[in-house]
Amino acid sequence: MSMTLAAAGTAVPAARERHPEVFAAAARRKRRFQIALLVLAAYLAWSCWLFEITPARVFGGLDKMAVVLRQMLVWKDMASWDYAGIFEGLAQTLAMAFLGTLVAALVAVPLGFLGARNVNGVKLLRWPVRRLFDLLRGIDTLVWALVFVRAVGLGPLAGVLAIMTSDTGTLGKLYAEAVENVDRKPMEGVRATGANAFQELRFGALPQVLPVFLSQALYFFESNTRSATVLGVVGAGGIGLQLSDRIRVQYWDQACFIIVLILLTVAIIDLLSRKIRERFIGAPGT
């Protein structure tokens, strides 16, 4: 046993002498890893100092949060709540999410084909479409809502336009990437029948990407239902406006009721979206 350990002890220095570059590379990787850890630790420390994150603030905030949570869980005078306004706001939120997603998906389909490299081979025409996608999706939906609230006034219309604008950029990019990954053989088969370029895309490419388009649009509808809630805080109407009003006057029990409604609505939309995907696309593993 001792002889084996002694042999191993002499083998490592011998290997280091024969292959210095291997050990040098390992040492460089170790140093880079240590430097990265130091940089990360320094950045975290600087962030804590910048945002004044201290144990006193954190634990003091938790105590206040406990008070808010207790007030949320005790629902008082439920008979006097404005249920009509709450459910009207929820209906507006669903309408904003649905209309914004629907219009964005419809606009993104032709733009997605124009932005696809295998469909639009003219870079001078494809490049502006791609940059338009970057512009639209590079600005957050909340910022678009602030812009449209200023342009068209308060109300759900600003929320619809904000969702439509932002989602057009994101869905257009996703659709373009889906079109670029289609199988060329069905398109070539359609072309062999004497079809023109539009018919080639319609019967050769669109059936391949349509399930992807539908799946992504359904996901964005679900996501936009949550986004539309936030848009109401900045004046776009909907359930978000109802929620912000309750929080402003510290009606935490009603705020909790609205949050529960939002969660239930998102869960129902997720269930319906899955059923629709299974109906038109097929269940996973089939």
Automatic annotation (TrEMBL):
Family, per entry: Belongs to the binding-protein-dependent transport system permease family.
Membrane topology per record: Multi-pass membrane protein
PANTHER family: PHOSPHONATES TRANSPORT SYSTEM PERMEASE PROTEIN
GO cellular component labels: plasma membrane
Entry keyword Cell inner membrane: no
InterPro entries with a match to the protein in the record: MetI-like, MetI-like_sf, PhnE/PtxC
Name of the protein in its database record: Phosphonate ABC transporter, permease protein PhnE
Main subcellular location: membrane
Bilayer-crossing regions: 32-51, 95-120, 141-164, 251-272
ABC transmembrane type-1 domain sequence ranges: 90-273
